[in-house]
Design goal:
The complex is a heterodimer of chains A (about 240) and B (about 500). Chain A has about 240 residues and is of the alpha/beta class. Chain A has helices at about 50-55, 80-85, 100-110, 115-130, 130-135, 145-155, 175-190, 200-210, 225-230, 235-240, and strands at about 10-20, 20-35, 35-40, 65-70, 70, 85-90, 165, 195-200, 210-215, 220-225. In chain A, a hairpin with a 2-residue loop joins strand 9 and strand 10. The radius of gyration of chain A is 18 Å and the shape is globular. Chain B has about 500 residues and is mostly helical. The chains are: A alpha/beta (about 240), B mainly alpha (about 500). The structure holds adenosine-5'-diphosphate (ADP) and magnesium ion (MG).
């Protein structure tokens, strides 16, 4: 139990991750509570994606533990963690390009074999993104960047995640679309999904977040409530440019 | 709850994701105009059953209008290749696994059938259990090879399966004196001489004997498999294979059972190859080590890649081209038609705009007639050669120089053609158009005076290779493949 009463959903404790001999994440501690929206900020190559990969089990940490929903999942496979309720919108979205929007969404619900439940999942995603229903038979690879972003989010939401991980959702989007896409992120969040959003666009990410962490070459240099971070001298100098 | 989730988009704001690219999509689609666009749209929107009929009807008419020999060469062999292509299409096309040992499963099918139904071994099983056993053996061996390799990706899988394919050839070459439990001193494969005297298929009292009967049987088998594959490709598993092929990492974070899916595709492909192998063994009335070597593997890969990996219709067209063209080229008269049709098609489709097209066609024709006229007047030796047989060759002889004792000159022309083609690739614009004229003429000269005579031998494979290069240049994703769209 944390101070504000919400239970811890995800906790990284003392994580050290290596790629071969290269030490990438150093003694990382990070927490996402139930229903929270947390931003993980940092410049290029600061280890943001590596943090997500460690959470998902795509890379194994050398030290430390990953706890999810009160369970130590450090040694568990990626697919186990996803069954337990994680989902990801990967960097660059990584849709299945030559497959239709509908098929992409279906792949997101691969775990859910029950036909009726799946239909409800589709409805849920279509309510959130009416455009996807319109374009359900279009090949995902022929969509524009903003639409692909929606497919990627929809695909991740198909599995009913408790925690949605997003890797640089604003990457490659026109500024007006970045704004819209953060509005949608907020709406998804309000529907009760906890989120960990990795971003370089600190201003935007903090404006919708509850709390934030700042990573610099694999080490946490700042953390705290989003409002406080937005006003922080160092962060403003480093990222916000004002 | 649904209400608060609906994004409220103010009317004056652009909808998310709607940008210039999307706005122009409809326009791009409209560009599929003209007869080609009409055909393509028709094909894309036709129901699967109608598309299948477009193949079945000609396939069913073919045996009624052709000779026994042609039915075997163009019909039955094409069908067997296509059946093999279907299996490879599952492993390579659907799931994206580079399986270089594929032909071994075909071999296991043929040898299994031969073992349980031939004079050589003395067993005479009827077709249904024998074929089922052949399928089961191929699938089981696919499982045994695939299970430890299922974690392997790309190059590693290719190396393991290539080794397996070669091991199979060694095994059947030496399988006549196996001497360990449970086969004490048994002859499993007939060794280097192969299994001979394999039985024809015996189906409920009907013995499949003539080429025509084999054709019908194989056509039925092919339809069965293609319908099955269509259903599989439209199923959840089929789509998961496709997803896996496109992006294994994304498939994994969708928590698809990646390894199990790979293994399934591998075994599925092996089973189809085993089925084809059993039919092949009975058609050939024998199974010989040399039939299951790398050459056939390359042929089947060419079929799948040419047709477009992952496309069922593509396999049929690929098999027709890859088997049909070299067969057509065996006969110099037919080879003549193939050559000039391909040449004209190439020029018509590749030379744009029409001004250049007219220049190339007119220039080439004029050059030929002028040269023949000049030679007739002053250098009679250059038109003293005999035209090749056939109507087309006769027409061509008015346009083409045919020297007596042409071999040496034609060899030079052959080398010159290659040099000119290389020069062509360096040129741009009108220079390219102008150099194209002598290139075509010299190429046709080499063809008329030298190559057409040799099409029985290596030339036809050279030509097939050239044709494949041209086709793959025109459509890198294969004739029926869907474009692999890069995701931003
Ligand atoms: N598979 C890998 N093997 C080796 N080094 C890697 C690998 N992936 C990332 N790195 C390195 O780890 C560091 C952090 O990468 P990443 O987590 O992707 O950064 P970010 O997402 O913050 O831009 C970078 O220096 C990168 O070069
Ligand atoms: Mg990154």
């Amino acid at each position: 139990m944390s101070v504000n009463g919400a239970a811890s959903l995800l906790a990284l404790v003392g994580i050290d991750t290596y790629y071969g001999q290269i030490h990438i994440l150093e003694k990382l501690n990070l927490e996402v509570r139930e229903g929270e929206l947390v931003s993980l900020l940092g410049g290029n190559a600061s280890g943001k994606s590596t943090t997500l990969k460690t959470i998902l089990g795509l890379v194994q940490p050398r030290n430390g533990t990953v706890e999810f929903r009160g369970e130590n999942v450090t040694g568990r496979t990626t697919s186990y963690r996803i069954k337990r309720g994680m989902a990801i919108v990967p960097e660059n979205r990584r849709l299945f390009g030559p497959m239709t929007v509908l098929e992409n969404l279906e792949m997101g619900a691969y775990l859910n074999r029950d036909g009726r439940g799946r239909k409800e999942d589709f409805e849920r995603v279509y309510t959130l993104f009416p455009l996807l229903k319109e374009r359900r038979n279009q090949l995902a690879g022929t969509l524009s960047g903003g639409e692909q972003q929606m497919v990627a989010m929809g695909r991740a939401l198909m599995s009913h995640p408790k925690l949605l991980l997003m890797d640089e959702p604003s990457m490659g989007l026109a500024p007006i679309l970045v704004e819209r896409s953060f509005e949608i992120i907020q709406q998804v969040h309000q529907s009760g999904v906890a989120m960990l959003i990795v971003e370089q666009n600190a201003n935007m990410a903090l404006s919708i977040a509850d709390r934030g962490y700042v990573l610099s070459t694999g080490r946490l240099v700042l953390e705290g409530p989003a409002g406080q971070l937005l006003e922080h001298e160092d962060l403003r100098k480093a990222y916000l440019g004002r | 709850m649904a209400d608060e989730l609906t994004p409220q988009v103010p009317p004056d704001q652009p909808r998310i994701g709607v940008d210039e690219w999307v706005a122009s999509v409809e326009g791009k689609r409209e560009r599929y105009r003209g007869p080609v666009g009409w055909l393509r749209r028709g094909w894309d929107t036709a129901p699967a059953g109608a598309r299948l009929l477009a193949f079945v009807i000609p396939a069913a008419i073919f045996p009624l209008v052709t000779t026994e020999g042609n039915l075997f060469r163009y019909g039955l062999i094409t069908l067997l290749y296509a059946l093999l292509g279907l299996g490879l299409n599952v492993t390579v096309g659907f799931a994206g696994l580079l399986d270089l040992g594929y032909i071994a499963f075909f071999g296991f099918g043929a040898y299994t059938y031969g073992y349980v139904a031939s004079v050589h071994t003395g067993h005479h099983w009827p077709a249904v259990p024998a074929i089922l056993l052949a399928i089961a053996v191929a699938a089981l061996i696919g499982f045994i090879v695939g299970f430890p390799s299922r974690r392997l990706v790309g190059d590693y899988l290719a190396i393991v399966t290539l080794f397996f394919g070669q091991a199979f050839v060694v095994f059947v070459n030496n399988g006549d004196r196996i001497n360990f439990w449970p086969f004490n001193r048994t002859d499993l494969t007939g060794g280097a001489n192969g299994l001979d005297n394999i039985d024809p298929l015996k189906l409920f009292g009907w013995t499949v004997n003539t080429t025509k009967e084999y054709y019908w049987f194989t056509l039925g088998a092919f339809l069965l498999v293609i319908i099955l594959l269509y259903l599989v490709s439209e199923s959840r598993t089929g789509r998961a294979w496709k997803a896996l092929r496109e992006d294994p990492l994304a498939a994994e974070v969708m928590s698809m059972p990646v390894n199990r899916l790979k293994l399934m595709a591998f075994v599925f492909g092996a089973a189809i190859a085993g089925f084809a192998g059993a039919i092949y063994g009975s058609v050939q009335t024998g199974a010989f080590p040399g039939d299951f070597d790398v050459g056939l593997l390359i042929t089947i890969y060419a079929i799948v890649i040419l047709g477009g990996a992952g496309s069922l219709a593509g396999v049929i067209v690929g098999a027709l081209v890859v088997n049909g063209v070299p067969e057509l080229l065996r006969d110099p008269n037919q080879a003549e038609w193939v050559f000039y049709t391909a040449l004209v098609l190439l020029v018509l489709t590749k030379v744009r705009p029409w001004q250049k097209l007219v220049t190339v066609v007119g220039g080439t024709l004029a050059l030929g007639f002028a040269l023949v006229a000049i030679a007739d007047a002053w250098f009679p030796r250059w038109t003293a050669g005999e035209p090749n047989t056939g109507k087309l060759a006769h027409w061509v002889s008015h346009w083409m120089l045919l020297p007596s004792h042409a071999t040496q000159i034609a060899n030079w022309a052959y080398a010159l053609t290659i040099a000119l083609i290389l020069v062509l690739t360096l040129l741009r614009g009108w220079w390219r158009t102008i150099v194209m004229i002598p290139t075509i003429y010299v190429g046709a000269f080499a063809w008329e005076n030298l190559l057409v005579e040799q099409t029985v031998g290596a030339t036809r494979f050279l030509l097939l290779g050239a044709l494949l290069v041209v086709l793959m240049n025109a459509r890198p994703q294969g004739l029926f493949g869907t474009a692999r769209v890069e995701i931003v």
